[in-house]
Each structure stands twice: as structure tokens, then as C-alpha cells.
Design a protein that fits this description.
Elements lengths: L1 H11 L18 H6 L22 H4 L7 E3 L2 E2 L4 H10 L4 H17 L6 E4 L4 H7 L3 H13 L8 E3 L11 H8 L3 E3 L6 E9 L3 H12 L4 E9 L7
Parallel strand pairs: 1-7, 2-7, 3-6, 6-7
Antiparallel strand pairs: 4-5
Helix pairs in contact: 5-7
Bound molecules: zinc ion (2 copies).
One zinc ion binds next to helix 3.
Length: 234
């Protein structure tokens, strides 16, 4: 009898994707795990960098160094996010993207005032995508497109040159490394959101935003799951 009862409950109550102990209440997580995530409560409105005071751009953005206009990031790239996102990429734990995509959807529904006309996932070079078997930014963009009913196109923005690991380069070498790495195809709408898993220095989003603006886009948002908190990485 008890066995039947437990089975019956499990049909309706999905367990939390993190602790697997309590039932999932919000974005696939239990209330405790959801509350314990490293939420990015106050971020620079332009680059999302975690800050102490809201509404004012960070010192980098006061100098208008980025070509994108706005960043939405619900989380800081700290534990456990800094092990969960590499787990998606390198251990193929793709199911993690499911609840993180729901979490980003809820964040955008709460926070976003200007909706884009098109979602563009940050592309991987075709060789790198073939080696990994998927592009996590593309899968995330598909979840957001379905949830928010905004068109997503992974063919209009392409990576045409392999750039290697950005992490090993300093700021100016990173910028140089990205020059000419991307191309855009066909006409683009005025408002676009670039989708990626994390923003570290903002260099990739900046390079692509410059290209999109040359191609006629007037407003570029960057939507990521998490933003790195270390300002000196810029
Ligand atoms: Zn939990
Ligand atoms: Zn900023």
C-alpha cells in the first residue's frame, strides 16, 4: 500500500535537480537549493558585473568600452554554477541546461523591459561543435525561444575561425584573437539578444555586438546564465 502511494506521488512530484531529496518547486529545484544559488542581485546594467550599488554602470562601462547595450545574468559564476556549467560542456550533463534554461526564463520574465525580435546563440566553430556534439549556447537559445516565443536562428551568426582557449590570453591578446572570428548572414532585425552560458570578460559578446551593429542592429542585449565576479579579468 505504502509502495503504491510513493509511486503514485512520484508521477506528479519531480525531485529537485540538485539535491534529489526534496520535490522540485521552482525551475526544477526545491526551495532550499533555489535559495542557495549564487544569485547576482545587483549587476552593472550594461555588462552585468556584480556591484554594490544598482543602476549605475561599472567603471569599465562608464568609459563605454562595450558595444552591447545591456546584459541579463541571473547568477554569479561561483559554486555550484562553476562546476555545473563545465559539467554540461565536458561531461555532457545536458539535462542541467533544462532547469538552468527555466531559471533564466523566469529571470527574464521578471526583469526584461525591452524584448528582442531575434535570439542568436553565440556560435562555436563547426569543427569544435562537431567534436563536442552540441553547442550549449544553441541548446539554451532553443529553450528560451520556446518559453518566450521569440524566434531563434543559429545560422545567421557563424564562427568562421577557430580561436583556441581565451583563458590563457591577456586582455589585448584576447581581443586580437577574436578579430574576424565571426560573420553574420542576411538581414537582421533592430533588436537582438545574444545567448551564451557565461560571460567572463565580455570580449566575445563585444566582438559580436560590433559586427551586429555594423549589420544594422540598433540594440544588442546579452543573455547569459552566469557572470564572472572578478573585475580584473577584464
Ligand atoms: Zn534541492
Ligand atoms: Zn559594466
Amino acid at each position: 500500500m505504502i509502495f503504491n502511494k510513493v509511486n503514485y506521488r512520484s508521477l506528479f512530484n519531480q525531485s529537485c535537480a540538485l539535491c534529489r531529496l526534496q520535490s522540485a518547486e521552482i525551475s526544477g529545484l526545491c526551495e532550499d537549493c533555489h535559495a542557495d544559488l549564487p544569485w547576482l542581485l545587483l549587476g552593472c546594467p550594461i555588462c552585468g558585473l556584480p556591484r554594490l550599488s544598482p543602476d549605475h554602470p561599472c567603471t569599465h562601462c562608464q568609459q563605454k568600452i562595450f558595444k552591447f547595450d545591456q546584459t541579463e545574468a541571473p547568477l554569479e559564476y561561483r559554486f555550484p554554477i562553476n562546476s555545473l556549467i563545465p559539467g554540461i560542456k565536458y561531461q555532457r550533463r545536458i539535462q542541467t541546461l533544462g532547469w538552468l534554461g527555466e531559471l533564466l526564463t523566469h529571470h527574464l520574465q521578471d526583469r526584461c523591459e525591452t524584448w528582442p525580435d531575434l535570439l542568436l546563440p553565440v556560435p562555436m566553430h563547426p569543427i569544435d561543435e562537431a567534436l563536442r556534439g552540441f553547442n550549449q549556447a544553441g541548446l539554451l537559445a532553443e529553450i528560451l525561444s520556446r518559453n518566450l516565443q521569440i524566434c531563434c536562428d543559429s545560422a545567421q551568426l557563424r564562427k568562421i575561425r577557430r580561436t583556441g582557449k581565451q583563458m590563457t590570453l591577456n586582455a589585448s591578446a584576447r581581443q586580437q584573437n577574436l578579430k574576424g572570428a565571426f560573420s553574420i548572414q542576411g538581414p537582421l532585425p533592430h533588436r537582438v539578444a545574444l545567448i551564451d552560458d557565461i560571460m567572463t570578460t565580455g570580449g566575445t559578446a563585444d566582438e559580436i555586438a560590433g559586427l551586429l551593429k555594423l549589420g544594422g542592429v540598433s540594440h544588442v542585449q546579452v543573455w547569459v546564465l552566469a557572470r564572472t565576479p572578478e573585475p580584473d579579468l577584464d
